[in-house]
Design brief:
With about 230 residues, the chain is mainly alpha-helical. It is about 85% helix and about 0% strand. It has one domain.
């Protein structure tokens, strides 16, 4: 019999491998945005205007972006591409859940980025990037983002009942259910957050929105694998 930790490792690595090509495409696109910001004047002007919108709207910008990218976009694509334009009840339910959850996560990430700027400054230097990426990936994600994401989706899959939720807060649950998400996170987001933190603070949330598009696909894949294994 396989070691019980092998399965979480396998699921996480399989998710990264299955989405390697689209991930590389999006990472390349994000890198192109950063390079264009520093080397292409028209792009820099346009992105600075986007930064002004972020400055004016504050958390409203990040919450709205999270709702659009995490809920409206993936569910809309599902209806148009996979369901041939037919809207089902589950689409509405998924949209409501995604709107609340990803709107909240948009605000959560915005808070992290603001705190990182306070703690480490806004300069784009090697030492600052290392600190921000380390806090993001090895503190924020293992202690907050990954557990909260898995708990929320598992609660949704349980029909929003509290029965069985006590098992969420155990080492076994963390190893079996949250560890695959962390592996997928580190396999994809180490590059993504490095690129994100390479832009000025006000542009980090818009670039996060692009990265979130890919991450929703990763999360959907992992959840579907766990559901199929039950």
């Amino acid at each position: 019999m396989n070691d019980p930790i092998d399965k979480p490792l396998f699921i996480g690595l399989k998710a990264v491998r299955a989405n390697l090509i689209p991930g590389l495409i999006i990472q390349t696109g994000m890198l192109a945005v950063v390079l264009a910001y520093y080397w292409h004047e028209p792009t820099r002007i346009w992105l600075n205007e986007l930064a002004e919108w972020k400055a004016r709207l504050g958390y409203l910008f990040s919450v709205t972006l999270g709702m659009f990218v995490g809920a409206l976009l993936p569910e809309g694509l599902k209806v148009l591409v996979f369901q041939r334009g037919k809207v089902r009840r589950e689409n509405f339910e998924n949209f409501v859940f995604g709107t609340i959850f990803w709107g909240f996560m948009g605000a959560s990430v915005d808070t992290l980025y603001r705190l990182q700027t306070v703690w480490f400054g806004s300069a784009v230097t090697f030492s600052v990037l290392v600190k921000k990426v380390a806090v993001d990936q090895f503190l924020y994600n293992p202690l907050w983002a990954a557990p909260l994401s898995v708990w929320a989706y598992e609660w949704k899959n349980l029909g929003y009942t509290t029965a069985g939720m006590s098992g969420f807060f155990t080492l076994g649950f963390y190893r079996a259910q949250i560890l695959p998400v962390l592996i997928a996170t580190w396999g994809v987001w180490l590059v993504m957050v490095t690129i994100i933190y390479s832009l000025p603070s006000l542009l980090q949330i818009p670039l996060f929105g692009l990265a979130l598009t890919f991450w929703v696909l990763i999360m959907t894949y992992i959840i579907s694998q766990k559901s199929a294994s039950r």
